[in-house]
């Protein structure tokens, strides 16, 4: 089985839970594999959700004997990770962001995301194409 097949199976499990898959990597490390998922949701994912998801993925991998020797990590991306994908914008709704556009930096709460446009609490709208850099910041 190649990693793209494993990716699809894991993505199906994540999608059924309503959790957003931020990143997935499968790496060969000697005779074993490292399977690492970053997951989130608007409003934040909690540890028990990560634990439950890890259990479901382990059951899949073990039940189908997809990998014989592997390590699985399921966690949230954390603050400070660069935001640049649609999944990033969706999971960041309700969070305070620092968004750099050209020579301006906007620090505000993201209220909505739709069709490549971010709407902030102060009423400002920014298209994702105009963003140079964006990260979540602590309040």
In terms of structural class, how would the helical and strand content be classed? alpha+beta
- The CATH level-2 architecture of the largest domain is identified as 2-Layer Sandwich
Number of domain modules = 2
Major sheet summary line = 5 strands, antiparallel
Succession of helices and strands: HEEHEHEEEEE
CATH class of the largest domain: Alpha Beta
Chain-averaged pLDDT: 93
Radius of gyration, whole Å: 17 Å
How helical, in percent, are the residues?
25-40%
According to CATH, what is the topology of the largest domain? Alpha-Beta Plaits
Order of adjacent strands in the largest pleated sheet: 7-6-5-4-8
Silhouette:
elongated
Walk me through this protein's architecture.
The chain has 139 residues and is α+β, with helices and mostly antiparallel strands. It has two domains: 3-75, Alpha-Beta Plaits, CATH 3.30.70; 86-136, Roll (SH3 type barrels). Helices cover 27% and strands 40% of the residues. It has three helices and eight strands, in the order H-E-E-H-E-H-E-E-E-E-E. Strand 5 and strand 6 (117-120) form a beta hairpin. The model has no long low-confidence stretch (mean pLDDT 93).
List the helices and strands and how they pair.
Layout: H1 3-17, E1 20-29, E2 32-40, H2 47-63, E3 70-75, H3 86-91, E4 96-101, E5 104-114, E6 117-120, E7 125-127, E8 131-136
């Amino acid at each position: 089985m190649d990693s793209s097949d494993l990716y699809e199976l894991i993505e199906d499990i994540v999608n059924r839970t309503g959790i957003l898959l931020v990143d997935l990597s499968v790496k060969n490390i000697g005779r074993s594999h490292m399977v690492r998922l970053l997951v989130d949701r608007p409003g934040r994912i909690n540890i028990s959700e990560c634990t439950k998801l890890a259990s479901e993925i382990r059951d899949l991998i073990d039940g189908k004997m997809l990998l014989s020797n592997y390590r699985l990590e399921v966690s949230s991306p954390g603050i400070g990770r660069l935001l640049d994908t649609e999944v990033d914008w969706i999971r960041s709704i309700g969070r305070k962001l620092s968004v750099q556009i050209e020579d301006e930096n906007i620090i505000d709460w993201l209220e909505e995301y739709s069709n490549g446009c971010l709407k902030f609490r102060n009423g400002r709208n920014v298209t994702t194409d105009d963003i140079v850099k964006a990260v979540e910041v602590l309040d």
